[in-house]
Amino acid sequence: MLVQGMRGSQSQMDSPSAQLALIVASQNFLQPGGKMVAAAKATVPTIMDQASAMQLSQCAKNLAMALAKLRTATQKAQEACGPLDIDSALGLVQSLERDLQEAKAAACDSKLKPLPGETMEKCTQDLGNSTKAVSSAIAHLLGEVAQGNENYTGTGLRAGAGRGEGAVLVATDLSTPPGIAAREVAQALCSLGQAARGVAASTPDLQVRNAMLECTGCIMDKANNLIEEAWKAVAKPGDPESQQHLAQVAKAVSQALSRCVNCLPGQRDMDAAICMVGEASKRLLVDAVS
Q1: Beta carbons within 8 Å of 218's beta carbon, 6+ residues apart
Q2: Per-residue pLDDT, 175
Q3: Beta bridge partners of 169
Q4: 257 closest CA partner among 90, 127, 99
Q5: At what angle do helices 86-108 and 206-235 cross, to 10 degrees?
Q6: Distance between CA 69 and CA 75 in Å, rounded?
Q7: Closest CA to 215 of 269, 252, 183
């Protein structure tokens, strides 16, 4: 993801969504990179060959320094790219939709494989965490819309933002970096898409694989609608119809998230077990009455 983000940013230097994708990929790399450093340092004392141990120790130090520089660069990039508005969030989500389409095509050809380090257990845990992160980010976005915070939702910079519409600059107060809430949603969706792809690639169950990719694609589509509706709602502060429509779209995203989680093998088995218990309880009641 990090290499892909770098290539995308280099080939599309004027693309806000490519810049945002690189920032997200960099953030997502920091935690596993830190774990790799810790694992390497813990392994050094167990290596008998002194030269190999020294080499591993030095590599761990170099990686730790590189991660520190990456963290600093990412923070500076976020500050410098503050003006990235709602278009960049929409562009990233649409890019995630395309990635899922490619994953579905690869799955149909039996070419979808787990990435290095991906396991069913890890991806399942990541999916649960990212689902919560998406829900939290959406709740944050809705809260800012309700308060009419244009800077935070990223709607104050452009008029006409959306799929295929021309963007027209309008005057606004940029004292607060715009697009933060929309960007949070897009970042959470990026982690969700990566986890869902990992689950699909790691499971041998064809039904689970197809359902996971299909449900995740639905989430991206609904979330795209949500970001657009949030922009429209802030453009009409206090409009009951806009607020109601936004709430309906948010509910659709929530339902799509639930369907995605329910695709997990363990969750499906649990639901089936609960249904079996329910049916057994009904039969016991019937037998008791008769």
Answers
A1: 256, 259, 260
A2: 30
A3: 158
A4: 127
A5: 160
A6: 10
A7: 252
pLDDT in tens, 141-187: 887 777 765 444 454 433 333 433 333 223 233 333 335 777 788 88
Contact, 246 vs 229, CB < 8 A?
A: yes
> Pick the residue with more confidence: 285 or 130?
130
Q: Any residues with CB less than 8 A from the CB of 2 and at least 6 apart, and which?
A: 25, 26, 28, 29
Q: Which CATH class is domain 2-78?
A: mainly alpha
Per DSSP, the three-state class of 111 is: coil
Which tokens is 47 given? 């290596």
- Within 10 angstroms of residue 145's Cβ, the number of other Cβ atoms is 25
From 1.20.1420.10, 1.10.260.40, 3.40.50.10420, 1.10.357.10, which CATH number describes the 85-276 domain?
Answer: 1.20.1420.10
Task: Judge whether 192 and 127 are in contact, CB under 8 Å.
Answer: yes
Beta carbons of 184 and 85 less than 8 angstroms apart = no
Tell which phi-psi region holds residue 205, choosing left (phi > 0), alpha (psi between -120 and 50) or beta. beta
| Amino acid of residue 133 | A
